[in-house]
Amino acid sequence: MPPNFGLSALHKTVEINHLTMSKHVKRIQKFTNDGKFMLKWGSKGIGDGEFNGPAGLSIDRNDNIYVTDKNNNRIQVFTADGTFLTKFGSQGNATGQFILPEGIGVDTKTGLVYVADTGNYQIQVFRPVDSTISAA
Question: CATH for 6-126, among 3.40.50.1000, 2.120.10.30, 1.10.3720.10, 3.40.50.2300?
């Protein structure tokens, strides 16, 4: 993956923190570098801030966290403290729709969001949250 993407940005923009996903308990957790728990967000469900299979995450240049919500066929976006910002995507095969999205990467220079739309066998590209979410 190019050096401007995803988790490589995690160490640059959130130097003292680590983020983890738990597919089983359907949440995101944040820890310090020495393993001390800081915060968590999310639970099982279909609402804003709820997950049904968080599968991938990436951080943008504004420290917003993008999470692929695989079984809900969408992407959710949060602030660094876990506050829900927005979501995009739905189930289907049209532009902006997903079938089981897994991987995600954000280019920290351009802000473009790359989503591995696993079930549709494609990569979809979106403009960043600081503009309007739409296909690039």
Answer: 2.120.10.30
pLDDT tens figures, 119-133: 999 999 998 876 445
pTM beyond 0.90: no
Burial class (CB in 10 A: 0-12, 13-18, 19+), 48: exposed
Return d(Cα 22, Cα 50) in angstroms, integer. Answer: 12
Cβ within 8 Å of residue 126, ≥6 positions away: 88, 96, 112, 113, 115, 133, 134, 135, 136
What are the boundaries of each domain within the chain?
6-126
